[in-house]
Records
---
Amino acid sequence: MPLIDIKDVSRRFGGLAAVSHVNLSIDQGEIHCLIGPNGAGKSTLFKLIIGVYEPSAGTILFDNADITRERPYARVQRGMSIKMQAPSVFKELPVWQNLDIALQQQRSGDDLVMERQRLLELLDLAVHDDKLAGALAHGQQQWLEIGMALALRPRLLLLDEPTAGMSPEETHRTGELIKSLNRDGMTVIVVEHDMAFIRQIAQRVTVLHLGQIFADGTLEQVVSDPRVEEIYLGKAHHV
Amino acid sequence: MLSLVNGPQTSGNGRGFWLAFLAVLTVALIYPVFADSYDVGNFSYFLIWIFMALGLSLIWGYGGMLTFGQTFFFGIAGYGYGVLAIVLGGSTTTIAALILSVLVAVLAAAVLGYFMIWGRISGMFFGIVTLAATLSLAFFLGQTAGPEWHIGEARLNGFNGMKGMDPLTVGDIYIEGTILYYVLIALIVAVYLGLRMLVNSRIGNVIVAIREDPQRAEMLGYDVRKYQLLTFCIGSGLAGLSGALYTSWGQFITPSSIGLPAAAMPIIWVAFSGRSDLTATLVGSFLLLFGFQTITIYSQQAALVLMGALLLGTVMVMPQGFIFGVAQIASRRWRRLAGRDSAGDGPLRDGET
Amino acid sequence: MLPELFSLFYQFADVFAFLILASAGLAIVFGMMGVINMAHGEFIMCGAYVTVGLVNLGVPLPLAQIAAAFTAGLIGVVIEILVVRKFYKRPLDSLLATWGLSLIVTQGMLIVVGSSIRGIGTPEGSFAVGDYTFSTYRIILFACALAVLVGIYILFMRTRFGVIARATMQNAGMAQALGARTGRIYAISFGIGAGLAGLCGALYAPTMTLIPTMGATFIVESFVTVVVGGANVLLGTAPAAMLLALVRMALNASYGQIIGQIGMLFAVIAIIRILPEGLSSILARRGR
């Protein structure tokens, strides 16, 4: 049964069709990677799923409920959570308070304090918990933001370029983290460029090109498609 | 107990701070014993405005919404108290008039806030729309000199303003002079501690998160608009409380308490003091009111020129506020001199006290 | 029938001219630099005082008005260099800084020149349509408002300065990289805004009592016009003034001035609920 079902969704900006007639359904428990050249519409599709944009046409179902016109906070309350492309933590607030703002949605008291400590250790941020989030290194801000997304215990986790700015080791650890979350039942959609990372985690891959679905399947199927290589020409060394 | 009023959103969480707080409170409580009644009355007059300043600190400093409408709600509740105190018949019903007039101000804040926040008005436009509403109210009330402008027995009287309402009264006792002073001290302590609890609570966490980045806060599942409206209503309601108390204190109110330059005053107090901290706002606003009143005796215009210069100087030299900035520098110095890690003065978090 | 129609047009033109003249300077400064100049009313006051001062010295009215607009413009350039320039990265602080300035100027003026000075009276002259008589000067004000709109259009669409200014408006960093001296453009734009405010004061000086706090009479109208118009001066301001003038005229005619003023504010609040980014946003979308 699909957890998220995107039906014939389009989004236009003025004369530009950033996403057009996209059909995509993602099953419960899947790790699904969205790839494609820059400007393919990956981030726009994410923003349509979380509700930052409303589609110009089409419907989006989450767990069989029509959420096409719902505001982002309502979708988050239904069990979605997102890490956006640019790190957006609360820069002027300390690390622990960033986590609290997410954690307090579902927890309180000692339960919250314990979960905060667990996340801080999981994210390797325990020694920085009193620092202002804006003072963290770029990679650490990415981790913090993933932590805030996880603090909501989402059923569907959306990660937009989670490993940008991370070292290869950090990237690998992020991959392992995503896989362990997935083993506990979380559905994950990831936008990524890093092929090694995709190879590490992806169960299914969708290629977007010019706002449309170009290819879809396992990584092997997608990579062996000669047309995919064509649109990635010049980027072939990644594949 | 202290864990409720302490937290990351307020400065002064240590034992030293609360001892100083108690010392100041004690001085304030025994002050009327040593001062003559004229000075006590003057002191009460300063205290009346503190609610409006604290409300602005909440909306602007914590909530990130720059409202120029504090005197709009001050005026609504001020006139509301005047009208209700007359219509309800005065005496003990003035207590009802006080409560109802503040509720009317909150309702007005809910309506205006709904249109602005749901209309995605923010930043500078939030300021100028609230100011346009404020100036329009002052203009409107200035035009109500004719006898046709009355509500029941209560005449609005245009530029000359309303008068003739009873002050707050319980039974035979007028709440004036020293009694009013103690009532005001009690209200300020309650509002100050209440606001500290609010900003350090879960709701406070969300309020500052929205100030930092509204979209991020929404992505964590919060309906940003509802929290903004709540913040706006509480802060504006406090301006209303100041207004109703003001009318009761002097038994008159005129449109000049609403329009320019009155509308700029709360902005100046709070900007100068340090908008992002309730304690700095409390202390700074009181000092400014005191200084302003002292100079006004010689020349009101000169006092207002000085207030304008203070506002200009604050944003040019210390945009986070002078009282707040100086307090921060002083506490850093102190820590270095004392050569100790005064963790007690730093931010606290849940579960640590 | 015709006299009634003309009377309606006259009332509309009167409000429209007021809204355009009061808001044009504010709108240019906001559109170019993203700054709301809270001392806008004081530039209007400056224009009015210079006009009356010069007329009392024997200068002919139109000449005095032009001189007043230039004076306000020059003061605007100085203020931009001394104060406003420091706040382009902190627009909210620019609001506070200019408000502080406004207080200093109005209250300082009250100390220096006292509460009111001798006015000069509205220029005589009226004409009749049917049974109605109308003031010629009000029609001149309407013509001036139209001239200001045309002037702004020519300045921004047909001159070299305008091209550079629009480029700066779109992307200041890029314009700078291409050689535009953005600092100078901002100073000139602020000067133009202040000059238009001065012109507004100069034009209305004969029609009203002069007091140092007179700027407050204009700023509500200028604020709401800019809020309804949105960020694009060329597209937004005129339609916003037209819409608000219609609302105002209809309410004035049926319920009188007080309800007219309050009703306009309610209309503004309703409009921002529906069109958060102002009229220029839908007009810009149409054009694309």
---
Amino acid sequence: MAPTKPSVKGKSSSKGDSKGKPLSSGTKVSKKNVKRPPPTEVKSKARTEKSQLRKTKKREYTEEELGLPKLNQITPVGVVKPKGKKKGKTFVDDAEGMRTILAIVNAEKEGQIESKMIKARQLEEIREAKRKEAEARMAEKKSKLEDVKQSIRQKRKHKGDAGESKAAASSSGSSKPKGKKKSVSFA
Amino acid sequence: MRQLTEEETKVCFQKLAHYTGSSLSQLVAPTEDPNERFVFRIHGSRVYYVSERNMRLATSIPRDNLLSLGTCIGKFTKTGKFRIQLTALDVIAPHARYKVWIKQNGLMPYLYGGNVVKGHVGRWSEDCPEHAGVIVMDMNDIPLGFGVTARSSAESRKLDPTAICVFRQTDLGEYLREEDTLFTT
């Protein structure tokens, strides 16, 4: 093998130097002999070269790369099955698998119940606060009403005392309260 | 008859966990006898809880001829949901998360398919939230059925005696009322 390679190389080098010569030469035999080795060399180089690989890569387009609208594809959007996944059902029969699923489900349920309880407690607190507020308002209203009642009673008492004294003192004082009453009724 | 898939197992357990606490894992835990293990099997659309030994024996029966085996837990609907059935009561009752005990006077109304009203409730699990699964029991701790709470236990204290506390889902009366359809495939 070793002796053959240098000879080829020598030939190729000679051709490289004399690229114009074969075109000019008229003999068929000499042309064939000279031409055969170089294409093989070129091919071997081309296969290993990156340019070849790039070409093959360029030919393969994924659907995403093509940028087709999803509704325009052959397989509908929801029906696309994942590649490389085992076909059929995956059964769970071993106790370990069952236990893990159970643990997951239980944890989910606990979380749900916990959140429910927290929510319920918060709502209960809010209701309690509202109820207390309403009670406070009612109490305030009642106290106000009581105050007003008290003040009216006191006024009446005062008026009663004053009326008696006025009646006793002067008879003309009775005309004034009438006037007041009228003004209140019209207003 | 076949094993449940992962998805089916999850859906089934989610429904069971609605009524039971964390002790549900006892169902799949190995029993004292290592040879006696209980498994879940689906036959048609129905799910059965059956001992492994019985399950192996049942494999000798042609699929068309096999009507039932073990304890029926419930059935899968065509949409993939799981409907729990009265027959699962004995399986889930020992592991119940929340319980409602009803008094003697509420026994018949419940067993005839009525909801549980406040006046019939004898006892109630504490800290029970709204819309939680509960096992209904009589005062002698015999499970009668299960349902869903209408109000939380805190709220239901304020209710009047005729207000509904638990919405009935199943009761033992179904063994008679649904006799024709309870075990049909």
---
Amino acid sequence: MSDDIKILVVDDEPVILKSCKRILDAEGYKADSASGGREGIITMEKNAYDFVITDLKMPEVDGLTLIKWLKKSRPDIGVIIITGYPSQETIKDAIELGIIDYVPKPFTPAVLIDVVKRAIEWKKKKVSDEVKKEEEFPPSMIAELDRMIKGYRNKPGSLIPVLQRVQEMVGYLPPIVQKRVSRGLNIPAAEVHSVVSFYSFFTMKPRGDHIIKVCLGTACYVKGIEEVLSKIKKGLHIEVGGITEDKRFSLEAVRCLGACGLAPVLVIDHDTYGAISPKKVTEILDAYQPVTK
Amino acid sequence: MSEQKRINLMVCAGTGCVSAGSLEIKKVIETEINKRGLEKEVGIVLTGCNGLCAGGPVIAVYPEEIFYQKLKPEDIPHLVEEHFLKGRPVQRLMYKMPEKRKAIPVMSEIPFFKYQVLRVLRNKGLIDPEKIEEYIARDGYQGAAKALTEMTSEEIIKVVKDSGIRGRGGAGFPTGLKWEFASKVKSDIKFMLCNGDEGDPGAFMDRSVMEADPHSVIEGMIIGAKAIGANKGYIYVRAEYPLAVRRLQLAIDQAKEAGLLGKNILDSGFDFDLEIYQGAGAFVCGEETALMRSIEGRRGMPRPRPPFPAHKGLWDKPSVLNNVETLAGIPQIILNGAQWFRSLGTEKSPGTKVFALTGAINNVGLVEVPMGIPLRMIIYDIGAGIKGKNRTFKAVQLGGPSGGCIPESLIDTPVDYESILATGAIMGSGGMVVMDNNNCMVGMAKFFLEFTAEESCGKCPPCRIGTKIMLDILTDISEGKGNKEDIETLQDLSHDIIATSLCGLGQTAPNPVLTTIRYFRDEYESHINDRWCKAGVCRDLCSFHIIEQLCTGCGACMMACPSKAIMGEKKKPHKIIQEACIRCRTCYVTCKFNSIKILPAKFEGDPATLVEVPAGAGMRKEGGVE
């Protein structure tokens, strides 16, 4: 397992290089060393690596320059920094360049191993996430998204309507889609996310084929919606905000559907069901079959 | 209405009736009518919400105004044959008072309709909301025409001020004053906004108005825009109201086509453009500064006032935000004058108010009544009292999560802003949820706190953290972990949150707790001290017992019990096995003889020490039981 992982350590202090190599080799990784930024680049031109662990302060080609080169020429290599001068500024710069983690100097073997392990985990997850996302959104949908978003560019206050349309098209708003919106509207990704996370209408989780919205308004509460809700939860084995294993249903709670005359009420997709009881609800749900794709 | 027909059917297509199947009813009626060749004599109109949602699907037959309710497709052939062909109205399908047999055929004689005065809802159930001609035929856009062509901005404001109309969104700020502030600010860009973000759970007045009479809202906005000098408007509607959004959009398109929106409206030289903005589900966006931020495409968080929106509102331009119901009432005020408006209601709260009457009541629905009528009249006359046998009125909740519970002792309180405020509740936007003896007031307070704790936008720590702490205390109380000091802590926290929150959400969030403590302190105490939730709602604080003397041994509870916790022979008193009981209340609701009593958790001993047990009552005086 771990012998697949190749790591290059870059530092101007031979002692650090030596000890890092010893610690990492003992853990079963394949570690090489380079005594400076320039030598690091040369080594990487020759061999492929999964991770680079580098010092920041080095003569000639320093750590930040090396990271910049890495991001441009070897974007797949994960970067971890070692720094004896954990000044806020340099770390901030390095984080902005996309490092995974950092090891403060001086460090114990345990710390180094720990950081490396975490980095490996993180990279694995990231790769699988990205592969999945690409599969889920065909290029045609992405193109359509971009076209729609473009229509709203330069229109003040268009973020919420755009997100509503995007959610309609994609079904939910994962980070990758939020980034697309951010780029398309020229709004910082943080602001897009702040809006997505604020409004309950937006969801970052995928939804099922059918969406059950259970009204938790006062009238429905007074008339016993809680019992209906617990019946649904038990029947489908999901919690509010969850999605069934077969992706047939997702369950949402809404504040008030404004159909209090029918309390207790639930809405599935676009159908409203009034005066429901725990007994009736099973029957209603059975009528909704998974959508065949 | 286009051509003269012998009979006109008004089929309710409000959300309530549609989900009860009114569209299918309409289809069946059409087929049956065609079968009998009556299509030239009988007209069918799909209307907005009729109001009596409890009876859905409902239709009203004009000109006689005969009202049919709870229609099923299989009833239709008979109805068409008997009434529309032979002229014999069908008694069986008419409205009956609860527990009475006599049918009331004519709509205006049904108490639910009789005591109402329709001003804002004057077109409900009468016009097709998707046709501008029908709105115009009922004096529609005449108020706007008068305002645009005959009146100056000052004159409009004077009429609205003199009418004394107060914002129907809840706080009751005088609308005329709001307009005056904004009209006096000099700016080339101003905004006229409509608040259709009806967030209070248990309220659906605004939805019904937007769905049943969308043009009235648009007309009100045109008048308001002229008064303050705005050329651009937004209607902010919840995304949870898709039908309202669709009908409003249709209405806007029709108004544009008719030259009632856009450039140079009615040749008056006045321009006004209107757009719908869909909210995204945040209760706090009902607050005006938060709503404006949301339109700007940001997080809907309130900001301190001043500057007030009349000076710096949407995109820092002078803006006025009015509630749907307020705006829908404006055209009639312009048309009929301030004195007409004042002819109903009280001195300080003139006019009418629309309420969404829901909960444990017979006639659930939408009602419009003059301000100042007693609550009792709304609940017992219009609402026809509490639904179900053995159920009694306990409280009525006004104002949603910002409001409070009014107990039976205050049921004669007149409905106006000041009197309601004096009880500790608020008028609110008009949600009126009736509770009966099966509702636990601690549970009710907890329900609302769950709501506000989740909907708090997080800006002010007292609201964000305080409501959470209050919720934790209430949860403890409802789970039997309450302390004696809890009631006082809740009150202290409430006052702190009220004093230190920025917007209305935090300032009113503790109201449900304060009013329930004020009027139902004994319930809190019995939860805390006796571990006894007398309504049987808090499952950890109750146990169910069959009183032998009252049990007839009918077996209904045994059949209904989902956990098979009831045993007994037929016609002999049954018994609940406490270990197996999940306290779901099913038996309690099922028993027709009131023989099941709710006692404290893990109660053992003689029930007669706690509840009234009639000696020697019941069917079995001799034999059977030892």
